[in-house]
Amino acid sequence: MPIARDFLETFGKSSLAHEPWVLTGNILTYARDHFGIAVEDLFTSDLDIEAFHSDIEAKLLAALDRLRLDKDERLKALTLRASYVQLVFVFAATINLIQNGPVSVPHRHLAAHLQPDDVVITFNWDTLMDRALAESTDWRPDFGYGFAPHRIYRNGWEEPDGTANDSAVRILKLHGSSNWLTGYPVIDYETCALGLMQTAPADRVSVFECTLDPYATYGGRWMSGYERYSFGYYPPNLPDDSGNPASPGHQFFRARYKFPWMPPAKSSEEGLVSSPLIIPPVKRKAYGLFGSLFDRLWQQAGRALTAADEIALVGYSFPPTDSHSLNLFKTAFCGRNTLPRITIVDPSPQRAHDVLHRDCGIPDSHIHVFGGSDGYFSEAFDTNKLWR
Q: How far apart are CA 307 and CA 301, in angstroms?
């Protein structure tokens, strides 16, 4: 996966950047107007996507605050919301494209060593671990994410298997996942805040697993050729939600430009337009947009860290801007009566070591480090070394 300064360039080199169905217009004009980057240069630049997305978010929130006092701010808020949402879709689509290949070998090695009551905690959005767990264990998305999905797409929408396997490995994705689906983000003009188009509770989530046949999606723009747990730019529409109605005295309408170079639709467009459910890499992460979902996931992660005898920290270095994750570890360790044994795998492990030792109170005797050339989570890494 690309790092923050590589992300936009990675997208620019991909097939997605040349796909007419992929929407980037608002992103390009925002970069031009606010960062001085020419439209033709954004996807060859090293602009940090976290700084970029955070800047859009900050201006969107400010516009929503002004909207409470001045209804003439609607157009500006709508434009900023479009930039924010387009970047979410580009982010998720790039991840889905990168992971669209054989099951990752190091993830498969790790999955094979996990015991039924182990827990995987991740701040990433990809489904590399999901696919490896599904291949190597009895993990299933029906029960393996720490919550019960509303629906699962398996070449058609299905009810999840209600026979939950409580002893199976869980993967807790604390910033969402590129294959989780929710209602499309819209502006709620009553509260002057971001909300979801769906009438269902905000914490209702559906999950995409696989497809063989075209699914109903926005404009019928289904894209083929994706592996399990990945899809093209547009996810399947939600079939059983009519969406929030317009406020009294108002009516919704929809218009779509038909450019001559736009390919014809490949599927139907029945149902409610959906969005990948990811918490973007921004300073003010909008966990509350999705109701109680992330509160519950973070609580489960805290309980797992409090109970674990051994913890393997693979490639996570506690970014200074992510105080929420640091507090997760500090709170969990403060609630323990014993010290866990911790293994760090990271080419640059110093910050992770310092945070665990200085901020979390873990003595060096309980921390084992694989750093430098030994710290790459690659096919050559022996996952037996994670556990002592």
A: 10
Q: How far apart (Å, rounded) are the C-alpha atoms in residues 376 and 388?
A: 19
Q: What does the pLDDT look like over 236-292, one tens digit per residue?
A: 999 989 898 887 887 888 788 788 888 999 999 999 999 999 998 887 888 999 999
Query: Are the beta carbons of 215 and 272 closer than 8 angstroms?
Result: no
Q: Is the dihedral of CA 297, 135, 379, 312 positive or negative?
A: positive
Question: Residue 236: its pLDDT value, please?
Answer: 97
Question: What's the pTM value of the predicted model, to 2 decimals?
Answer: 0.93
Rounded Cα–Cα distance for residues 70 and 383 (Å): 57
Q: What are the DSSP E strand ranges found in 67-158?
A: 119-122, 152-154, 157-158
59-to-65, 70, 80, 143, 365 alpha-carbon distances in Å: 10, 16, 7, 38, 46
**Average pLDDT in the 343-359 region?**
93
Q: Which residue has the higher pLDDT, 321 or 313?
A: 313
Is residue 164 pLDDT above 70, yes or no?
no
- Which helix H or strand E contains 343, and what residues bound it? strand 341-345
183 DSSP assignment? E
φ/ψ (deg, to 5) at 314: -105, 105
Across residues 10-34, what is the average pLDDT?
94
Cβ-Cβ contacts under 8 Å for 69 (sequence gap 6 or more): none
Count of beta carbons in the 10 Å neighbourhood of residue 376: 16
Q: Which residues contact 8 (CB under 8 A, 6 or more apart)?
A: 42, 43, 45, 46, 47, 49, 52
Token readout for 87 is 């970047």
Cα–Cα distance for residue pair 249/370, rounded to 1 Å: 63
pLDDT of residue 280: 87
CA dist., res. 14 & res. 44, Å (int): 11
236 neighbors 269 (Cβ within 8 angstroms): no
The span from the CA of 92 to the CA of 377, in Å, is 22
Non-local (6+) Cβ contacts of 225 within 8 A are 100, 232
